[in-house]
Recover the amino acids of this structure.
């Protein structure tokens, strides 16, 4: 029975034959090694204490690794949402991307969980007390619980897609979308509902998180589809090309929406100098985070990928994959800036405290870089193994 | 009487006004100004008290705990000797990289070219609506049902540090020795449950800056300090809606 199920989920023939080049295996092995190194750094930090291993402090308790976690789950939610347009909500042009996107949604959230496991000091306690001592007013509790449910739904959905049970997979996909949106907006609320943190406080965070998840999803779909075909030397079908073109058009719209959101976030943050918010906004407009913001977030994250899609009229897949890669890097800066800058303005900044910095310092340590890098390596390894195991994630209808 | 007609009358001068007339005029003047002057004396909500009410103070009779522990800090008495910090570290085994209470130094201009320094002791505010308690996923930090003290149950802390991000007062740190977030608990486990009536920092303070007690008891010192006429009492960061139980005033 088990073997039968496995045989149904894992395609034995058909689809696309992965490359048999030794380089492919070598890259997977290398990525596996980086994952292990990241895990080793994480375990070391766990043993010696985060206080000593990471650059975080009592004032800035969240750093690079929380940003990486946010990055991964945003991407996962986005992949889930973009793929659902086709196989849950029935839009034909989005159907060919479903399988790979659902697989990647799973891969990215697992990578996110890997990083957060080393960002949280006692993850094993979470497994116990999230269940026996839940706090329903806590957004972290909801996020953890809902992302657990989300991963569960996505795994079953993926298995059903593999088995060709498209109707059932659609229902599970819908459950995944609902859990994903609820979980992801709760992640936004983790920040947005903190009354004492002016940069985050308000309804903007949950709304922005969902919208930028869709944007990240579009970039990830295009980048990973192109990469999968490139590294395996497969040839894209016209249906898939059309599908990616539709994704790019949706992506272009979402880049504009996020530009619009960002513009008003800035204007509302500097108009009238709202205390606490103004200082944070200025830190990335002209302050120490200006390079992150203007080069990373604005140029790489939004403007370059948007202009490429416009310039090639959403048709040239390799160029759009390049734009998507730029966008994915830029989006990482967005997550990092969002997490870190929100904590930089000291709570007592209006009291003229002697020796209190205008903006609190934070810079990641080697441990944080290595665990984060390990998360990326793990995600990439899962992606490459997935291409092999699921033979190019082809849908049988094209 | 018509004003225009009055204007036409000749000024009689003050010499010819009868003394009875003068007395009537003075009485009227006193009565009118008295209403305004005496207002602040007689009124139950003087201008100053109304001002202090901006600071997120508790509404009268709204002390939901018994004893409802709170602390009053008489800021201008603090000389930054840091004995409170030492006593806290010793009593509660606070590691060198953390603190439960500290003293912040405030600088403010006191005239051209002059600066005045003030010392502001800070600690957990044991808020009535604590942001840290709301965000904790596992209820590792909670509001004690009896005393209102914001406490930690170390074994439940997953170390997500959301409470640290949520606290408007920077009152929390991660204590590696406990693998949990640590914070002031008004010396609940180290003193209050052992029969002592105040906290280590209060006992150690030579200037009587910190006053600790049950604010729900109208006979307590903290109650009387917070409910004085013509004294401004404030709390830190009232805009966050946390309703703190640490009150500040100048002696």
């Amino acid at each position: 029975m088990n073997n039968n199920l496995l045989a149904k989920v894992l395609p034995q023939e058909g689809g696309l034959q992965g490359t048999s080049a030794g380089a492919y295996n070598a890259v997977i092995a290398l990525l596996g090694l980086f994952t292990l190194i990241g895990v080793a750094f994480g375990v070391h930090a766990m043993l010696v204490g985060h206080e000593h291993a990471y650059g975080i402090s009592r004032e800035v308790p969240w750093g690079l690794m929380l940003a990486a976690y946010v990055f991964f789950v945003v991407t996962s939610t986005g992949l889930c949402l973009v793929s659902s347009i086709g196989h849950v909500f029935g839009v034909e042009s989005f159907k060919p991307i479903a399988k790979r996107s659902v697989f990647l949604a799973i891969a990215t959230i697992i990578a996110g969980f890997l990083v957060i496991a080393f960002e949280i000091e006692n993850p094993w306690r979470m497994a116990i007390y999230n269940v026996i001592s839940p706090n329903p007013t806590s957004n972290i509790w909801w996020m953890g619980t809902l992302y657990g449910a989300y991963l569960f739904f996505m795994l079953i959905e993926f298995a059903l897609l593999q088995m060709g049970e498209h109707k059932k997979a659609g229902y599970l996909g819908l459950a995944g979308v609902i859990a994903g949106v609820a979980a992801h907006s709760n992640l936004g609320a983790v920040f947005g509902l903190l009354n004492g943190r002016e940069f985050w406080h308000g309804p903007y965070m949950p709304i922005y998180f969902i919208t930028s998840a869709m944007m990240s999803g579009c970039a990830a779909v295009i980048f990973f589809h192109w990469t999968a075909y490139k590294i395996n030397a497969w040839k894209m079908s016209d249906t898939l090309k059309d599908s990616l073109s539709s994704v790019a058009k949706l992506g272009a719209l979402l880049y504009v929406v996020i530009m619009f959101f960002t513009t008003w976030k800035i204007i509302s943050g500097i108009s009238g100098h709202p205390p606490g918010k103004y200082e944070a906004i200025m830190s990335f407009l002209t302050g120490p985070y200006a390079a992150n913001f203007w080069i990373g977030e604005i140029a790489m994250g939004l403007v370059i990928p948007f202009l490429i899609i416009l310039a090639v009229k959403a048709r040239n897949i390799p160029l759009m994959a390049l734009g998507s890669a730029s966008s994915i890097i830029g989006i990482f800066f967005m997550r990092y800036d969002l997490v870190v800058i929100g904590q930089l303005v000291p709570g007592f900044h209006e009291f003229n405290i002697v020796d209190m910095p205008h903006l609190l310092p934070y810079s990641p340590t080697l441990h944080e870089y290595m665990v984060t890098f390990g998360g990326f390596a793990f995600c990439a390894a899962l992606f490459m193994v997935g291409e092999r195991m699921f033979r190019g994630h082809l849908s049988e209808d094209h | 009487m018509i004003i225009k007609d009055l204007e036409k009358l000749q000024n009689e001068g003050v010499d010819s006004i009868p003394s009875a007339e003068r007395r009537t005029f003075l009485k009227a003047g006193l009565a009118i100004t008295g209403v305004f002057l005496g207002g602040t004396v007689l009124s139950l909500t003087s201008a100053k008290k109304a001002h202090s009410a901006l600071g997120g103070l508790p509404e009268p009779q709204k002390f939901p705990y018994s004893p409802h522990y709170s602390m009053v800090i008489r800021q201008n008495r603090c000389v930054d000797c840091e004995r409170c910090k030492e006593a806290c570290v010793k009593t509660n085994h606070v590691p060198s990289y953390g603190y439960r209470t500290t003293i912040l130094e405030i600088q403010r201009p006191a005239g051209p070219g002059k600066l005045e320094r003030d010392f502001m002791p800070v600690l957990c505010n044991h808020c009535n609506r604590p942001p840290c308690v709301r965000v904790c996923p596992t209820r590792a930090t909670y509001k004690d049902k009896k005393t209102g003290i914001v406490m930690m149950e170390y074994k439940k802390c997953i170390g997500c540090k959301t409470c640290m991000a949520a606290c408007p007062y920077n009152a929390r740190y991660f204590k590696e020795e406990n693998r949990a977030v640590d914070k002031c608990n008004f010396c609940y486990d180290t003193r209050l449950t052992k029969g002592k009536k105040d906290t280590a920092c209060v006992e150690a303070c030579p200037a009587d800056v910190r006053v600790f007690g049950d604010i729900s008891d109208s006979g307590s010192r903290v109650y009387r300090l917070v409910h004085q006429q013509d004294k401004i009492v404030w709390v830190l960061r009232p805009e966050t809606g946390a309703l703190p139980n640490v009150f500040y005033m100048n002696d």
